[in-house]
Amino acid sequence: MISATRYSAMAQINRQAKLGAEIARAETEISTGKKVQKASDDPISAARISELRRVQADQVTWSRNIETAQSVAAQVDTQMGNMADIFNRVKELTLAGRSESASPGDRAAMVQELGSLRTALSNIATATTPTGQALFPTDAPLQISVSSTVRLAATAQRSTVFDGIAYTHGIDDLDSVIGNAIDAISNDDATTRRAFADVALSDIDVAIQRVTDQRAAQGVRAQQLDVAAETLEGVSTQLAEERSSLEDTNVAATIMKINAKTLTLQAAQAAFAKVNSNTLFDFLR
Fold first, then answer.
1. Which of 125, 204, 254, 267 lies at a C-alpha separation of 20 to 30 Å from 141?
2. SS3 category, 99
3. How many Cα atoms sit within 13 Å of 55 on the Cβ side?
4. Which residues pair with 172 in a beta bridge?
5. 145: alpha, beta or left, given left = phi > 0 and alpha = psi -120 to 50?
6. DSSP state, residue 38
7. Which CATH number among 3.40.50.300, 1.10.730.10, 3.20.20.240, 1.20.1330.10 corresponds to the domain 45-246?
8. What pLDDT, in 10s, does the model give residues 102-145?
9. Mean pLDDT score of the chain, rounded to an integer?
């Protein structure tokens, strides 16, 4: 009987120790906010959490890439808008300089302004971001990773925007259009000036169309980056929800579990104390 009593006592002690450990673990889950403290707690969930953590880290990098690319794309769009303004002004000045009513002094002022516009166009072609990155790179633009499989460019190659344009006189660049307008207005012979100006105006229209087309293409690139950002945000939300369901503590449910186990432990301790308060003579009655 003594052996049986000793065995029963040990079983009760072990049961109470187990309940105490479960309560302590639940309290740790509440204090840390995490229900998986180590891999052995839930190997399957722990493995999935580790994978989700890796993917989320990648997404942080992709999100930063997209933000940087969107900033570059916005700057490029602004500069292309400036280019459109430049060529619209070049057209206005060429039309004004073509007129016989324009005096030599007027035409000299127009030529000076056209020179300034030409410099502005050159500055746009070589413009950089605050970090020194070329807005219009001479080489193929960098393809930026926005997911594990998708890479997008934030801008176009410089030659795509500024060079290889088919004018009436042949293939040339945007800069040549302003140079031809300057030559036309600078001519003192009215007939020759009108003829040269007409050719220049035709080329200016071609240049304006090139800028318009390139700005539309830039809009497509910006839209692709916006879609990538929205997609990434949606996936990030799904991953965060899944990770939370696997890792985060359900505080309300855990508190209920602690209360239930605490009551069970208290009852077991009370029963154990009562049983062990009996003497051998109590069992022999």
1. 204
2. coil
3. 17
4. 165
5. beta
6. S
7. 1.20.1330.10
8. 999 999 999 999 999 999 999 999 999 888 999 999 999 989 99
9. 84
Specify burial of residue 273 (Cβ count, 10 A radius: 0-12, 13-18, 19+).
Answer: exposed
Average pLDDT for 264-282: 61
For residue 139, the model assigns a pLDDT of 94
CA distance 3 to 147: 67
Q: Which helix (H) or strand (E) holds 136?
A: none
Q: How far is CA 276 from the centre of its chain?
A: 68
Residues 113, 93 contacting (CB under 8 angstroms): yes
What is this structure's pTM?
Answer: 0.74
Task: Specify whether the CB–CB gap between 160 and 150 falls below 8 A.
Answer: no
What pLDDT is stored for residue 281 in this prediction?
47
The set of residues, in sequence order, having a beta carbon less than 8 Å from that of 180 and lying 6+ positions away, is: 196, 199, 200, 203
Contact 202, 168 (CB under 8 A): yes
Q: Where in the chain are the domains? A: 2-35+248-284, 45-246
What are the tokens at 172?
Answer: 């040339």
Residues in contact with 124: Cβ distance below 8 Å, sequence separation at least 6, in sequence order: 79, 82, 83, 86, 135, 136
Mean pLDDT of 8-37: 64
Alpha-carbon distance 218 to 211, whole Å?
Answer: 10
Q: Is the separation of the CB atoms in 116 and 219 below 8 Å?
A: no
